[in-house]
Amino acid sequence: MEPQKHVLALATDWGADYAGIADLTPAHDDIIRQGRLDTRIYPMAISVGIGMIHDIVDRLMDEPGRATAVSYKAHCYDVINYRLDEIASRIAGYLQREGYRAFPIPASRRIDDERICGLFSHKLAAHLAGLGWIGRSCLLVTPEMGPRVRWTTVLTDAPLTPAGEVMEPQCGECRRCVDACPAHCFTGAPFRPDEPRSVRYDASACDRHFQNMKALNPETAVCGLCVAVCPYGRR
Predict the structure, then answer these.
(1) Is residue 104 a contact partner of residue 46, using CB atoms and an 8 Å limit?
(2) What is the domain partition of the chain in residue ranges?
(3) So what's the pLDDT on residue 70?
């Protein structure tokens, strides 16, 4: 089986709900600025996503409390991140055995505390793969599940071909995520690829809000309201 079909089949066989191929060439400069990864070495990306459990996410709005927070942290964060990392590792191993370079990016690991960012933007890869658009919350919004999807990425030099088309934002005039944020992190500005994240999102305000919750009770330190309120995810 050719690499393109095999990596996508491998992702879905191991439980991914979304899998796509992205050409990173148009975003080379932005990627260098964020994580210092040279995408001339890895011009392609395999984007993999797993959907969160609706009944848990819905409770963030409908029945907030300890039980909801514990369930959300476990099953919409920790467990899904573990599953994504395993899928990415297996895909990278397959590509390496086939003679290609591969770099699996951890699903959720911060490398820069000052800028509050990871090594690579999973949302950017999913967007370039045509799996969704960047919403006002700076989250990747899918037509089917809204932002209720967690992502990982495998960078590679394998000869893959993007199959999806980049989606234009479909939020319209909706500002539910902006209005729901208890830390007022979002400006409401729509996504534009030539603008820095700070135009739309105050990452420091979001992080301070989370750290304050964590100081009160690490076990129940979750927010997720921007995920829960999006009409593309709520049923």
Answers:
(1) no
(2) 3-228
(3) 94
- Amino acid (one-letter) located at 8: L
Both tokens of 10, joined, read 């491998």
The whole-angstrom separation of Cα 71 and Cα 93 is 32
Judge residue 203's burial from the number of C-beta atoms within 10 Å of its C-beta, 0-12 exposed, 13-18 middle, 19 or more buried: middle
80 is written with which tokens?
Answer: 């899904």
pLDDT of residue 194: 80
Please, are residues 209 and 183 in contact by the beta-carbon 8 Å criterion? yes
**What is the spatial distance between Cα 188 and Cα 196, in angstroms, rounded to a whole number?**
14
**DSSP-assigned letter for residue 168:** P
Joined tokens for residue 86 = 């395993």
pLDDT tens, residue by residue, 152-188:
999 999 999 998 899 999 999 999 999 999 999 999 9
